[in-house]
Specification:
Number of strands: 16
Low-confidence stretches: none
Number of domains: 1
Shape: globular
Number of helices: 0
Largest sheet: 7 strands, mixed
Mean pLDDT: 90
C-alpha cells in the first residue's frame, strides 16, 4: 500500500489539536486530493506526486488511554502510495475501527494503532510531528502524532 523514500525532504508545518472541536489540523494546507481514512482522521495524498502531505480530522479525546509510550526510532522522509488510485478517491482503513489511542502526557505523543510491538515496523515522519508506522509489507499499523494542543475557550 505504501512505500517510502528517506532521501527526500519531508513536509514542514504545524500539527494542531483543538480540544474544543476534537480535531487535528495541519498547516499550511497542501494539496490532498486522495485521502485514506483512519477512523475519522484523514491522511492526505497529492495525486500528482502520490506523496503523503498532511493529516486532519475528528478524533475525540474522551477514550485516549494515558500511558508512557516507548517512542520508536523515527526517520524523516516521504511516504508514497504504492497502488493505482485516482484523484478524488478515498479509502477507509477498516482495521482502524479496532485501534486504540494512547496518549503520553510527558512526551506529548499520541499513538493511534493496533499493537504496541513496533520493533519490525518503520516509522516515517512525513510532516512535522506526523508519523506513519508501516510494516514490512507496506501496510499502515499506526499513526504517531505530537500536536500543539489548542483550547479555544
Amino acid at each position: 500500500m505504501f512505500i517510502f523514500d528517506m532521501d527526500s525532504v519531508y513536509n514542514v508545518g504545524s500539527l494542531m489539536y483543538s480540544e474544543e472541536t476534537h480535531e487535528f489540523a495541519s498547516t499550511p494546507y497542501m494539496n490532498s486530493d486522495i485521502t485514506f481514512l483512519v477512523g475519522y482522521i484523514n491522511i492526505g495524498f497529492d495525486s500528482e506526486t502520490k506523496e503523503a502531505t498532511q493529516i486532519w480530522g475528528f478524533h475525540h479525546n474522551f477514550n485516549w488511554e494515558k500511558k508512557v509510550l516507548n517512542i520508536p526510532e523515527i526517520t524523516k522522509g516521504v511516504v508514497k502510495l504504492n497502488m493505482k488510485i485516482e484523484s478524488g478517491d478515498s479509502i477507509r482503513i477498516k482495521e482502524a475501527d479496532s485501534w486504540k489511542t494512547y496518549y503520553d502526557s510527558h512526551s506529548g505523543w499520541i499513538r493511534f494503532g493496533n499493537t504496541d510491538n513496533f520493533s519490525n515496523d518503520l516509522c516515517i515522519e512525513f510532516f512535522t510531528n506526523t508519523v506513519l508506522e508501516i510494516d514490512k509489507k507496506g501496510n499502515l499499523i499506526a499513526l504517531w502524532l505530537k500536536p500543539e494542543f489548542r483550547n479555544c475557550n
